[in-house]
Write a structure and sequence with these properties.
With 254 residues, the protein is α+β, with helices and mostly antiparallel strands. It folds into two domains: 2-123, Beta-Lactamase (2-Layer Sandwich); 144-247, Barwin-like endoglucanases. 30% of the residues lie in helices and 28% in strands. It is built from six helices and 13 strands. It has helices spanning 2-9, 37-58, 93-108, 112-123, 176-185, 228-234; strands at residues 14-21, 26-29, 63-67, 72-78, 81-87, 144-145, 148-150, 155-161, 172-174, 193-198, 204-211, 223-226, 241-247. The strands form two sheets. A six-stranded mixed beta barrel has the order 8-12-9-11-10-13. Helix 1 runs antiparallel to helix 3.
């Protein structure tokens, strides 16, 4: 993987490149050491978020070519992956595109298991020294609140496909507990629509949402009900995990 990144960097005018996934993980990078890794991770998240927004607005996007006075950023969009190249204005574009296409073909042939291993490797945090027993903190998962799980982008909810006899006035339905978790996650922003994307295949869709005013049995705790139409757009089945992200009146992912 690193060899592919270094191959791109060898093109005259290329300052560095990185491979990231739809969860914002940086899988490989050839940027110089003075590029802060946390900044690269933030860029990876922004690339994913904005590509989702562009796809929602214009359809499928396969290549971004962002030109500025000081340089150029080229982003190749692949299924579940993004290949980002930072260039000088003097870059040999023809040579870069040849190298980029070669790298993409190699990545597309890479086994899913190998990519999954890269994600696990980048996601595992460094072990911390053990605290004395008297100072051990209370065990609590930072990735969950009650029965609702979270990512750095939004709330993870489990799919429940509504039957065709249900009220279809809403494309998606959540319970009050999940609604509260979403509101807390997005700092109290009001919303009527959610952007949903399937963690299994990366497919995404915008859906109006209805919040149940009462769910005493907790039937919809950590659950999102979606119509068969939305399920089809997401290629989702009962039990699949969807990430729910708030869409506000101001725009996408505010």
């Amino acid at each position: 993987m690193q060899t592919l990144m270094l191959g791109l960097k060898s093109v005259p005018g290329v300052m560095g490149s990185m491979l990231s996934d739809v969860r914002g993980n940086v899988l490989a990078s050839s940027f110089p050491a003075f590029f802060d890794q946390s900044v690269l991770a933030s860029v990876a998240v922004l690339i994913n978020d904005n590509s989702l927004g562009m796809q929602e607005a214009t359809g499928e996007v396969r290549l971004f070519d962002i030109r500025t006075e000081l340089g150029r950023v080229i982003i190749k969009v692949m299924p579940h992956l993004f290949l980002t190249v930072l260039c000088e204005t003097t870059v040999n574009v023809q040579l870069l595109m040849i190298s980029l296409n070669v790298a993409v073909k190699k990545l597309e042939k890479m086994p899913v298991e190998q990519l999954a291993a890269l994600v696990q490797k980048t996601a595992v945090p460094a072990p911390k020294p053990a605290l004395p027993a008297s100072k051990q903190p209370v065990q609590q998962s930072a990735a969950s609140v009650g029965t609702v799980r979270t990512t750095d982008k939004g709330i993870i909810l489990t799919t429940k496909i509504l039957d065709r006899t249900s009220n279809m006035s809403a494309n998606s339905v959540i319970g009050p507990q999940s609604a509260t978790a979403l509101s807390n996650f997005f700092h109290g922003l009001e919303y009527k629509n959610l952007h949903l994307y399937n963690l299994k295949n990366g497919k995404s869709v915008k859906a109006p949402v209805t919040i149940l005013s009462n769910d005493p049995a907790g039937t919809y705790d950590g659950i999102i009900g979606i119509t068969p139409s939305i399920a089809g757009d997401l290629s989702a089945k009962d039990g699949d995990d969807l990430v729910a992200v708030v869409i506000t009146k101001k725009g996408f992912f505010d």
